[in-house]
């Protein structure tokens, strides 16, 4: 479980997050929805301990990570996989090498176990036959699937996604959303994804937090979003705006 408790974050005089609280339960898909540039990706960085809040606390499985030093954060981060918006693949490495790189560098696992884990994630991502391809030869959706497979290779409890369908065509977007949904069904994992695409939220999210003007204005089951009386939420729903 991941929890942000009364988190405030400022860059200079600019308030990015203002007393934000939200919880991500295990085996739950949680969306963080909001306009571009509102600070959604900052929430992921806080969950990973990459940045620290000005005030408030961030808990991972009951441990307050805000005072932890970098060395102490490593076992915490091992519990989470991250899929960046730009995928962050190594251009000079094949798909299989991209997936296996951190297993060799960080865990130094036996080659047989590395091969087994890579094969499992290649199969899960539907990339059989592309193991020796370079990222430049893949479509945007396929690159995203490689990034998801790489995030899963450490056997995390939770996967964090930064705008997982941004820039993808509708068919590729649907494949990525189905893959995220299958994490919960097949792998018993939780997921957090930040997005500005409201359709994605209704497609797969169990719960949603809406971030607007530095504050969480809704936090609850996705199906209850229609019951919100907040003017911003009512406007995006009544106008049938699919992208914020």
From TrEMBL:
Domain ABC transporter: 2-238
Pfam families in alphabetical order: ABC_tran
MF terms in GO: ATP binding; ATP hydrolysis activity
Residues in coiled coil: none
Domain of life: Bacteria
Keywords: ATP-binding, Nucleotide-binding, Transport
CDD domains linked: ABC_Org_Solvent_Resistant
InterPro entries documented for this protein: AAA+_ATPase, ABC_transporter-like_ATP-bd, ABC_transporter-like_CS, P-loop_NTPase
Designated name of the protein: ABC transporter ATP-binding protein
Source species: Chlorobaculum parvum
């Amino acid at each position: 479980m991941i929890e942000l408790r009364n988190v405030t974050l400022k860059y200079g005089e600019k308030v990015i997050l203002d007393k934000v609280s939200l919880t991500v339960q295990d085996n739950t898909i949680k969306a963080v929805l909001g306009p571009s540039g509102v600070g959604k990706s900052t929430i992921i960085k806080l969950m990973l301990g990459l940045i620290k809040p000005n005030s408030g606390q961030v808990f991972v499985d009951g441990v307050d990570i805000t005072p932890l030093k970098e060395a102490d954060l490593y076992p915490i981060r091992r519990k989470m996989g991250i899929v960046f918006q730009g995928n962050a693949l190594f251009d000079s490495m094949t798909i299989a090498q991209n997936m296996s790189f951190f297993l060799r560098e960080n865990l130094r696992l036996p080659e047989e176990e590395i091969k087994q884990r890579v094969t499992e994630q290649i199969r899960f991502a539907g990339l059989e036959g592309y193991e020796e391809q370079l990222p430049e030869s893949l479509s945007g959706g396929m690159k995203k699937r490689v990034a998801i497979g790489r995030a899963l290779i450490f056997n995390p409890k939770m996967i964090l996604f930064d705008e997982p369908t941004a820039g993808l065509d509708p068919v590729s977007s649907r494949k990525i959303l189905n893959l995220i949904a299958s994490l919960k069904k097949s792998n018993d994992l939780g997921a957090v994804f930040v997005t500005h695409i409201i359709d994605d939220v209704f497609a797969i999210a169990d719960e949603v937090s809406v971030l607007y003007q530095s504050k969480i204005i809704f936090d609850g089951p996705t199906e209850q979003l229609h019951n919100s009386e907040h003017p911003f939420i009512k406007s995006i729903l009544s106008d049938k705006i699919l992208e914020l």
